Amino acid sequence: MSALPIAAAIIAGGRGRRMGTPHKAALVLADGSTPVQRLAAALHAAGCAPVVVSANDPNIYAETGLRVVADLRPESGPLAGIEAVLAALAPAPVLIAAGDMPHLGRSEIDRLIHGWDGRLCVAWTDRMQPLCAVIAADVLGEVRAALDHGERGVHRLWERLGAVPVRFDEAAAFCDLDTPEDLARCP
Prior knowledge:
Layout: E1 7-11, H1 35-45, E2 51-54, E3 67-69, H2 78-89, E4 94-98, H3 106-114, E5 120-124, E6 128-135, H4 140-148, H5 154-160, E7 164-167, H6 180-185
Helix pairs in contact: 2-4
């Protein structure tokens, strides 16, 4: 664990092709909240500070009161968002959470933080959840190198860097909103 507080970034810069909107984290859920609001509340409750949103359109998330960190390399995928937040929040380690996972709660976040090895850990259900991880600031160099070489895959990079898996038996908290049907099922 780090002596520094763990910062957090909600990764919300995707294109959302299957959903039909690039702003899945701003969709209004059945209870009137948005995924980014739910995630921010859970991250704050777990003690993460500051909490930011990784996105390229700050207007979409203005009402949240959260700082929006734009990609340094637009159109380069979630790895570019990770690069931007690691650079913006250094030297703090950063917990990243996919902006379309509205069921990710404090208990999962606490478990992920406690499983952090001081460098890189990632949530693992029946598979790796690459956009749910805790990353030390010094991983920024490897993220930049991967992007410089045209790599876009977060999963592949985490594997190569030996990310420590933090196992979760229950996958429900990691369900994401990729399609309108997913949204309809989301309480």
